[in-house]
Design brief:
Elements lengths: L18 H19 L4 E2 L5 E3 H7 L5 H5 L3 E4 L2 E5 L4 H10 L2 H4 L3 E10 L11 E10 L4 H17 L6 E6 L4 H14 L8 H9 L1 H4 L5 H6 L12 H16 L4 E3 L11 E8 L8 E7 L3 H4 L7 E7 H10 L14 E6 L4 H13 L4 E3 L6 H10 L4 E6 H6 L1 E6 L4 E6 H13 L3
Parallel strand pairs: 1-5, 7-8, 12-13, 12-14
Antiparallel strand pairs: 2-4, 3-4, 5-6, 6-11, 7-9, 9-10, 10-11, 14-15, 15-16
Helix pairs in contact: 1-6, 6-11
The protein binds one RNA strand of 77 nucleotides through α3, β6, β10, β11 and α13.
Length: 429
RNA sequence: GUGAGUGUAGCUCAGUCGGUUAGAGCACCAGAUUGUGGUUCUGGGGGUCGGGGGUUCGAAUCCCCUCACUCACCCCA
């Protein structure tokens, strides 16, 4: 860093995943992928960038996400946005690829970055990774239960037990509208007594008023209408079926009539997975059914259900629970090739590539360090082997193979070197 | 967008009532009779004390502004 040169940082709320961090991310990805594929969910990698209109249409014009949280820009006449969530793009891809006509039942999962222009704080970033699962093309309540079960198993596989499934139904169409009207009518007389926030929620999303944590507001909500009393027989049956399917798996559900997902596309089943001991940050997963999104985005009217799990909240949860065991940092390669003496640069380079071609991972010193210093580097870097090549070895066609943790060194014929290394690596040290 | 807290070396931090060359640990680099790593010892590089302005004989320290980060609210994974 020179003095008169300005420096650069990652943009606010965006952090780099350094090589040291990748193993942990990979572990979560592996667990997610394994649970998903076992249930026939296939990985999909949709666009990171979409037409802005897609999100306006699906997520909703009057949501916080669309109103103020999207990274949007214009190129030519096209308005684009970095995706703030995964479902819209996945459904768009599903329709665009023609699945609805040919093979409407599709189970997809995706792990990748999402972007929201928010003020960063603990557990919340502008670029964050989500594990998304979407079961498309069916209304079957067992799919609701299946994805909820999948989400719960994800956390349990990581060691987070006591996952609480909070569930609600938002109804669909008429019953939902009637419920909303009823809530509005119920609240209207007491709005003056509510907090400022509730008053703004009343305008933006009435149902959210019932979610207020303010005790004085809560008192005003006693006797508020419950959605379950408004559900059509069909939606009520669906909701009951989802819960009973989960019960059959031994998974309890908690009816949370205040649970209202913020995005416009949700219908019927909505749910959140919580780990109550985590307090304010107990919410680990959110999802639900979005039965008309495919239609709203230009496809046939097909049901769908899915969820999103944020990796950052998950990691935070593991940390707070003290069960985050970071995978050991793996060395860059198995072997560190040491040059014993001057003028061996080319020889070292050639030997390294020779070993690599036989399947051995090797790096060599590029700082012109002393032999001793190279050995230190090999040790500090966690390499299993140091390979020493000097004039003498070169002439005799051998290499010193040093097993660093074992502190043993043997002279090996160059032709046998790769095999000997691979052999030694095959048995646990 | 609103509010609060914090900015000293790559990292974690100390720095008194304002006082002269701003420190420690870790990390890094180099040595300890010249072809061999964990410990130890010695030495070394590295900071315009976030930036700008002000008060003062004198500012890392006090005041103002600004930026950044963190946390909280809204909302959310």
């Amino acid at each position: 860093m020179s003095k008169n040169q300005r420096t650069y940082r990652a943009p606010r709320g965006i952090r780099d995943l350094l090589p040291e961090d990748v193993a942990l991310a990979e572990r979560m990805e592996r667990i997610a992928a394994s649970l998903a594929t076992r249930r026939g969910f296939r990985e999909i990698r949709p666009a990171l960038l979409e037409e802005t209109a897609l999100f306006k249409r699906s997520v909703g014009e009057v949501t916080d996400i669309v109103e103020k949280e999207m990274f949007s820009f214009e190129r030519g006449k096209t308005h684009l946005s970095l995706r703030p969530e995964g479902t819209a793009g996945i459904v768009r891809a599903y329709i665009e690829a023609g699945y609805p006509r040919n093979r409407p039942i599709q189970r997809f999962f995706h792990i990748g970055p999402m972007f929201r222009y928010e003020r960063p704080q603990k557990g919340r970033e502008r670029m964050f990774t989500q594990f998304d699962v979407e079961a498309l093309g069916s209304m079957d309540p067992r799919l609701d239960a299946e994805v909820i079960q999948l989400a719960a198993l994800f956390f349990e596989s990581l060691g987070i037990d006591e996952i609480e499934v909070r569930i609600n139904s938002m109804g669909d169409g008429d019953d939902r509208d009637r419920y909303r009207d009823a809530v509005r009518a119920f609240l209207a007389p007491s709005m003056e007594a509510h907090c400022d926030l509730c008053r703004s929620r009343f305008e933006r999303n009435v149902l959210r008023v019932l979610d207020c944590k303010n005790p004085s507001c809560r008192e005003l909500h006693a006797g508020a209408p419950a959605i379950v009393d408004f559900l059509s027989p069909e939606n009520e049956a669906h909701f009951a079926a989802v819960r009973s399917s989960l019960e059959r798996l031994g998974r309890k559900t908690v009816l949370d009539s205040g649970l209202v997902r913020g995005l416009d596309y949700y219908t019927r089943t909505v749910f959140e997975l919580h780990h109550p001991p985590l307090g304010v940050r107990s919410a680990l997963c959110g999802g639900g059914r979005y039965d008309h999104l495919v239609r709203d985005l230009g496809g046939p009217d097909l049901g769908a259900v899915g969820f999103a799990i944020g990796f950052t909240p998950t990691l935070l949860a593991l940390e707070e629970l003290g069960i985050l065991d970071r995978p050991a940092i793996r060395p860059a390669a198995d072997c560190f090739l040491v040059a014993a003496g001057e003028g061996l640069d080319e020889e070292v380079f050639v030997l390294a590539e020779e070993l690599r071609s036989r399947g051995v991972s090797v790096v060599f010193d590029v700082e012109g360090k002393s032999l001793k210093s190279q050995m230190k580097t090999a040790n500090a870097g966690g390499f299993r082997f140091a390979l020493v090549l000097g004039e003498s070895e070169l002439e005799r066609g051998v290499v010193q193979l040093k097993d660093l943790p074992a502190r043993e060194q043997h002279e090996i014929a160059r032709e046998e070197l790769a095999d000997r290394i691979l052999e030694a690596l095959a048995v646990p040290s």
